[in-house]
Amino acid sequence: MNWNELLSSQRSADKKAQHEQGRSAFEQDFDRIVFSYPFRRLQDKTQVHPLPEHDFVHTRLTHSLEVSSVGRSLGKRVGEIVLERNKSLSEQYSAHDFGAIVAAASLTHDIGNPPFGHSGEDAISEFFKSGPGKKYESQVSKLEWADLTNFEGNAQGFRILNKSRYQGIQLTYATLAAFSKYPRQSIIENQDKSRRSQKKYGFFQSEKETFKSIAEQTGLKPLGEFTWTRHPLAFLVEAADDVCYHLIDLEDGCRLGLVSYEQTVELMASILKDKFNKEKLERIDTKDERIGILRAMAVGQLISECSELFLDNEQALMKGEYDISLTDSVPSSSVLEEVISISVQKIYRSRNVMETEAAGFEVLPGLLEVFTEAIVNKEKTSKTKKDKAIERLLPPEVQLDLSLNQDNVYNQLLCCVDFVSGLTDRHAISMFRKIKGISLPNA
């Protein structure tokens, strides 16, 4: 791989993005995402804790903004050194371009996640794997069925970013490749479990040709059928996400009383090492402010560690030989492992989180059953009044997609998944209650 190809400003429809005065194509990507409808929906989607009366607990939107901020810092730091090592690149690119690509890709990293956190992915998968949706197995291919029974938010995100109806997005290939942490289809031969990039899959069968074009344009190294190495900047996107959910979930847990203040300080101090000054910390008035300061300092420390590790392994990354998470190998990795262990025990398994997950396993399959029953394999002449009423609940763009895919069961099912997975937490619950007759619309 080489940086000239990896930094491709090509967009879909064979258009090369034009740099504007004072705003590069990659900065345009960031702006397009911010003003897009799919991104705005993240404001009402659960990060870890259900959307509470506490206004400081993170949603998917605030988490994505924070990940993007960390990603920009990582990209700029790496870009400065890469440009020093590759003088010819500096004639066309700047460190800000590296930062903008990672920031934009980071901003979208959760855009395909369904309601109710990661349990929402499991709920959709189980609808097809062992629920009412299992009856469609014989009507789709093996690879298509793998997409449905192992629903993946990363693949849904790639689908959203490449849907033709979202005319305002159409990101550059560099940003789309950096977004793709798992550049493979749902089933591959000889899966290499030592490769981080092969842990999950990153695109559905419906978008595999689109991803192939992006991989070829950016020069990703092929590893098999519809399987490639990661874009090097995808490691920075992953690191930005890891840094934020390790430290900020811990901060939220402390603020909610799930993790003790003393334990939180000890963990943050372990990352800061000799930069930690207990006496200076205790001069700060409130515990919340102290934790916030420590978190900011710890984020800065991890940005330094991740960027240094990336640069130390730049050649291996460019050859596709380095394929592990940066946060698994930085000097603070053992502390991060401890943070995860404590978070699983005290935060992710807290009662309110488990109640949210349980709700997701009722609501999402319930909605999928209603919509797939009304739509899939139904000719207009065979639709009941109930089917027609259910279909009219779908947004116009979903109805249009369905009309274009009347003879393709897989695509019809994906249209239903698009709608249900795109709902916010509150919208999903409200729609479920109304469709099931538990509550009626407000007059």
Automatic annotation (TrEMBL):
InterPro entries: dGTP_triP_hydro_central_sf, dGTP_triphosphohydrolase_C, dGTPase, dGTPase-like, HD/PDEase_dom, HD_domain, PHydrolase_assoc_dom. Keywords: Hydrolase. Residues 1-11 have a biased composition (Polar residues). Residues 1-24 are annotated as: Disordered. Residues 12-22 have a biased composition (Basic and acidic residues). Residues 56-255 form the HD/PDEase domain. GO terms for molecular function: dGTPase activity. GO terms for biological process: dGTP catabolic process. Pfam families: HD, HD_assoc. SMART domains: HDc (SM00471). This is Deoxyguanosinetriphosphate triphosphohydrolase. It comes from Fulvivirga lutea. The lineage of its organism: Bacteria, Pseudomonadati, Bacteroidota, Cytophagia, Cytophagales.
